[in-house]
Each structure stands twice: as structure tokens, then as C-alpha cells.
Specification:
The complex is a heterodimer of chains A (117) and B (115). Chain A is 0% helix and 55% strand. By secondary structure, chain A is mainly beta.
């Protein structure tokens, strides 16, 4: 069974359209994330939810709206897509840390490659 | 904006040699440091974590941390062609909290191991 699964894996769409990416994890983790990886391979955090509560909201255009219906699911909806939104979007989940020992192990999904034309 | 910097490479090493990867970070209070490996077209996977100054060894991998110099490195001994990948350095931002800890990733170093 896939631990963190994202759908769809590939998205090709026109500027101005709206699209959604779905993510589910079966690891029992409380915390889930959306990361964006651009063409230069920089992985940047966008959002994080802990047990359905939004806890990290980076400087992301409000065209991006995450939603977590339960702690096993985290979806990302993007309105009015722009060329610069083309990237690979990774969903991830993690265990909580203990003291200073953040486990740091993010379990990533396979990524959703978004191409905006 | 906290930064994590890596040489993008490619770092080309012959099979059996040691690959040495470096990473510097800007946040003086960072407490947790990680190396992820990402194969082309795949998702990152954790290979090493280190929290204290000094060396930490795990199989062919050794992570080294120097908080005073804000420097973390990864050594890959007896490099194999299967080690060819991009290696991402990741650092927690600020002091560790119960939740909402943020990992900042470097841009990655591409490693090519030639048979």
C-alpha cells in the first residue's frame, strides 16, 4: 500500500483555469504538508496542517487554498492558474518531534507535475 | 528568509571513491539537520539526520555538523552508481515547537557516480 498518495500525477492545463490536487496518507500521521518544487529543484513549503488545523501558511498567493477534511487528507485547490505555477507539488506527512529531536522524516507522495500553458 | 545553500554540482566521482557534499545555513538557532536523497523524477527520501555537533555514521553515509560554523556535510563512502541522485540538505527553522516546525531545503547537489 502506498503510504502517501497524490492524484493526479500529471496536470496540463491552460492559464486561468482552476485545478485541484488530492493527497491521502495511511501512516496515521497528524501533520501534513504541501511543498512546491520548481524547475531549479528548490523545495519550498507552502502549507502545513496538524490534525486538520492550519499551522503553517507561507507567503503563497491566495489563489492557493488548502483544505484538510480529516487528518489523513490534505487537498490543494488552485484558482486562476498562472504560468509561474508550473512546478511539481509534493504532499508529505510526518510524525511529531520529541523535545529538540524533530524527526524530520517527511514522507513524500510521488508528486503532481503541474504544467500551465 | 532563512537560507540553506548547497553547491548545485554536478559532483562527479568515480565508483568506489568518497563523495563529499557541503551545506551552509543562515539560521543560528536551527536545531535539526537532515539529508534527503532525490532520484530524478522521484520524491525525496530521508537518508540521514543529525542534531549534535560532530559526526554521525550510518552505513556508507556520514553526516557532520558544526553549529558554530553553521555548516553540515555528508560523506558517501565507496560510492556506487546507484548513489547518483540529487542530495538535499534540510534544516529546521528556529527553535523546535510542538507543532508547526518548518524544514527549509537547499537547492540540492547533483551527484554522478561513474563506473
Amino acid at each position: 500500500d502506498t503510504a502517501v498518495s497524490q492524484t493526479p500525477k500529471y496536470l496540463v492545463t491552460q492559464m486561468g483555469n482552476d485545478k485541484s490536487i488530492k493527497c491521502e496518507q495511511n501512516l496515521g500521521h497528524d501533520t501534513m504538508y504541501w511543498y512546491k518544487q520548481d524547475s531549479k529543484k528548490f523545495l519550498k513549503i507552502m502549507f502545513s496542517y496538524n490534525n486538520k488545523e492550519l499551522i503553517i501558511n507561507e507567503t503563497v498567493p491566495n489563489r492557493f487554498s488548502p483544505k484538510s477534511p480529516d487528518k489523513a487528507h490534505l487537498n490543494l485547490h488552485i484558482n486562476s492558474l498562472e504560468l509561474g505555477d508550473s512546478a511539481v507539488y509534493f504532499c508529505a506527512s510526518s510524525l511529531p518531534g520529541t523535545g529538540v529531536r524533530l524527526t524530520g522524516e517527511l514522507f513524500f507522495g510521488e508528486g503532481s507535475r503541474l504544467t500551465v500553458l | 528568509q532563512k537560507e540553506v545553500e548547497q553547491n548545485s554540482g554536478p559532483l562527479s566521482v568515480p565508483e568506489g571513491a568518497i563523495a563529499s557534499l557541503n551545506c551552509t545555513y543562515s539560521d543560528r538557532v536551527s536545531q535539526s539537520f537532515f539529508w534527503y536523497r532525490q532520484y530524478s523524477g522521484k520524491s525525496p527520501e530521508l537518508i540521514m539526520s543529525i542534531y549534535s555537533n560532530g559526526d554521525k555514521e550510518d552505513g556508507r553515509f556520514t553526516a557532520q555538523l558544526n553549529k558554530a560554523s553553521q555548516y553540515v556535510s555528508l560523506l558517501i563512502r565507496d560510492s556506487q552508481p546507484s548513489d547518483s541522485a540529487t542530495y538535499l540538505c534540510a534544516v529546521t527553522e528556529g527553535l523546535i515547537k510542538a507543532a508547526g516546525n518548518k524544514l527549509t531545503f537547499g537547492g540540492g547537489t547533483r551527484v554522478l557516480v561513474k563506473p
